[in-house]
Amino acid sequence: MPGLWARPPSSDQRPKVGLWTKPPSSDRMSEEPRSLEDAKMTQILLEQQRLKQASESSSALRPDSHSPSSSAAAAASSRNKETAQNPVAEAVLPTEMSCRQAFDLAWACNSLGGQFNSVYRYGSMRACSQHWDDFWFCMRTKSYTGEQKATMIRDYHRAKELSKYGPGKPSSEDVWTSRLTLLPLGSAFSQPVNEPAVGDDQSRIMEAQRRREVRRELGYETSS
């Protein structure tokens, strides 16, 4: 029976370990960087395949060019181009916004006085979301400067005018003819006004006589 302590192996049975181990072969050293390159290339190919599949799926989900939504977007873009090509409409578009004024308008709209005024005039409370949209848009563009900020504000107000006065909306052009060109500088209100030949009292008497003549001709009054 073996005892608690086993007999140590003899010197012949012990494994012989040299002081210097054999260096790995050159083939093994060249295989390691090649395996790293293969792994990187495989990862790149997998990433390209994933991006290709994502682009194909997004193109499959993209609406057709003949769908109603795409046609509406195309019509809106064409209306924006037409509005942008109108020099008169472009000249009156603002390029600056006051965030304090936008906040005051939104706050006044939500206040008791603003809602009471709306109920008194129109019989119902009014929505103030448009005023808050103006305020938050002003806060978003506050950090921009120069032409970029002016373009953003101009595009924002152009979209607002299009939604309010676009095709099918009530417009002042139903009564007045829109001017397509700007007037030359100094040509507006340049006609001279003649001095009145009579005083105010005499003018009021003459106007009252003219009105009586008109009412008599229409049959509302009889000649005395």
TrEMBL record:
InterPro entries: Pants/Emi1-like. Residues 28-40, 201-224 have a biased composition (Basic and acidic residues). Residues 1-86, 193-224 are annotated as: Disordered. Residues 57-78 have a biased composition (Low complexity). Signal peptide: none annotated. This is Early meiotic induction protein 1.
